[in-house]
Amino acid sequence: MMAKQRVLVKFSGEALAGESGYGVDTSILKFIAEEIKQLIDSGIEVGVVIGGGNIIRGVTAAKDGIIKRTSGDYMGMLATVINAVAMQEALEYLGMRVRVQSAIKMEQICETFIVRRAIRHLEKGRIVIFAAGTGNPFFTTDTAATLRAIEIGADMIIKATKVDGVYDKDPNKYSDAKKLPTLSYDEALADNIKVMDDTSIALAKENKLPIVVCDMFKKGNLLAIMQGDYEKCSIVK
């Protein structure tokens, strides 16, 4: 019998906005929910982290100095809670059992993050969406995703983005950009390669947590990765 697999999937908030670039596009929510359902139907335990860039980014909110960076970051954390609740609804719409756990207490909306409770939910086949980042300013949702992945003992973190992997330079700007199918943590920390922020990569390196970067809009991609097919993505390990 195969050992139970556990994964944390990180989605960017911007991707939820769709063409409008702002807010939540329910058709995208439904697509993501269908992709996650494939994992659940295959017996894989799933944790989720969603960014908040479709609503507000702390760095952007604080750029002119009127809003302090700490307040801007807390505003960004609240944005991730909005996205988490939206994702919970989409997953439940498809018949899955879901819990949202927030790093900031808000009992009327969701549970407070407790790692043992999160693991218990996962063991019972529930999806756990981790909201409000790490609960601390100056840390990105990438770092929060890596931290939660390590805390729940995930086999890997999948960063589902708008590109199909990691490139040696921005593929949207340079036509000669080369895709890197596999790279080391140290290579991922190079200035020209933006996989995740440096703190999250360093944390993954220290805990030997593989990072897989894939295109979230490729149907069946998440399940293929969990089944060992890394053809349409890049892996950092």
Kindly summarize this structure in a few lines.
The protein has 237 residues and is of the alpha/beta class. It is built from 9 helices and 11 strands.
Describe the structure.
The protein is globular, with a radius of gyration of 17 Å. The strands form two sheets. Strands 4-3-5-2-1-6-10-11-9 form a nine-stranded mixed sheet, with helices on both faces. Strands 7-8 form a two-stranded antiparallel ribbon. It is of the alpha/beta class and 237 residues long. It has helices at 13-17, 26-41, 58-61, 69-93, 115-123, 141-151, 185-188, 198-206, 221-226, and strands at residues 6-11, 45-50, 98-102, 111-112, 127-131, 156-161, 166-167, 179-180, 182-183, 211-215, 233-236.
Uncertain stretches: none
Number of strands: 11
What composes the largest sheet?
A: 9 strands, mixed
* CA radius of gyration: 17 Å
Distance from first to last alpha carbon: 26 Å
Number of helices, counting only DSSP H or I runs of 4 residues or more: 9
Inertia-based shape: globular
Order of helices and strands: EHHEHHEEHEHEEEEHHEHE
Largest sheet, spatial ordering of strands: 4-3-5-2-1-6-10-11-9
- Give the percentage of residues in beta strands: 15-25%
Estimate percent helicity. Answer: 25-40%
Task: Report the structural category.
Answer: alpha/beta
Mean pLDDT: 94
List the main descriptive attributes of the protein structure presented here.
38% helix; two-stranded antiparallel sheet; 19% strand; 9 helices; 11 strands; nine-stranded mixed β-sheet; alpha/beta; 237 residues
